[in-house]
Class I SAM-dependent methyltransferase (Stenotrophomonas nematodicola), 263 residues
Amino acid sequence: MAIKPAGPNAQVAITPAVQKAVQDSRRDPANVKRDAYRHPAQTLSFFGVAPGQTVIEVTPGNGWYSEILAPLLHDSGRYVAAVVDPMAVAEGRGRDYQQRSRDGLEKKFAGTATLYDKSTIVAYDPKAPTFGPANSADVVLTFRNVHNWRSANQAEGMFKGFYSVLKPGGVLGVVEHRAKADVPADDKTGYVGQQQVIAMAKAAGFELAGSSEINANPRDTKDHPNGVWTLPPTNQHDKADEAKYQAIGESDRMTLRFVKPAR
């Protein structure tokens, strides 16, 4: 089902280079199906991602966006996947999760060497995050991660790390599950208030350069029993409710472009 973006700023001019990367035949067909909800061509074009740049994606998960960013930057530019260093996490389930995540991404990259041979995986300590040399990146991207950092009391350090690694004039692109309004620090729904995210970025020194409704979903009522994870693609719901949540689709999301001031 094609879920069209909603809102006055939804239409973004898609660049040919980004469109070509989105249409790359090496993408996982299961991931391609999510394009109807995640609008990667519009999103990356809105953030100004282009060949020749150094682009850091923070906590890329199973590499959904890696499949697009790696070919986009392969011949000109650099794609860096920044993952949590498992050894920086206390021993136990948290470390095990981060190790599985890193192992899975490394396996993905090794499985298609011609695609990821110029991509880099770097590890960071979430308690003191550093993503590369200061003033070295053109773009930092993060997709649906801010709620995790916020609940772990790591958001302030993460945004400071983004600011440090970006060049003056560099772009921070954020996509996040959008709450109806501000939510408390201990909120467990996975949603975050849009003004809260803007405040976090501004506190780190960023300026808001633009917002878009590319990834808006007015069908999302944001009152689900298992929070955002009730919806696709996680689908933490009773089988009897499958049709209901598939009709909603993925979450309502903010799409924000911040800039590190050129000084």
User: Anything to note?
Assistant: Residues 86 and 97 are 8 Å apart (CA to CA). Confidence is low (pLDDT under 50) at residues 1-9.
